[in-house]
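worker-3 :: picked TLC domain-containing protein 4-B-like
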Amino acid sequence: MVQQSHHLLVLHHVLLIIVGFTNTFIWPFCQYFGQLMLLWEVSNIFMNLRNTLKYLGYSRSSTVFVVNEVTFVLTFFLSRIAPMPMFWYQLFYMAAPNPDFWRPEFVVGRLLYCGVLILQGMSVMWFLQILQSVKSHFKR
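worker-3 :: tokens ->
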């Protein structure tokens, strides 16, 4: 399980770099979407803090650990899950009408948005796993 999650995490960040940065620097109308994708990473602060707390020996029931867990779940939801509908609305109804979006040389950019589907699918999968973990933690 740990090894599989590690590979998915690496894949996630490789796709984010390709999709986010490539489009942001090449196409000006994609700058908003690239910045939104960077916002998705806000929750990593609390995920890394969680790992640090575990390394330092804090128990999962300690106040600092529980507060960090709740903050992680909230930031993950607010930065990754909640913006999804608005992201796709803005892509299809604001970016797609832009003439640059349909230029032949932007075919790679349009295909890279398929990578966004993968990234967001992975975020939904991880959020469901996070909710399961939180649920099991509070059942104890």
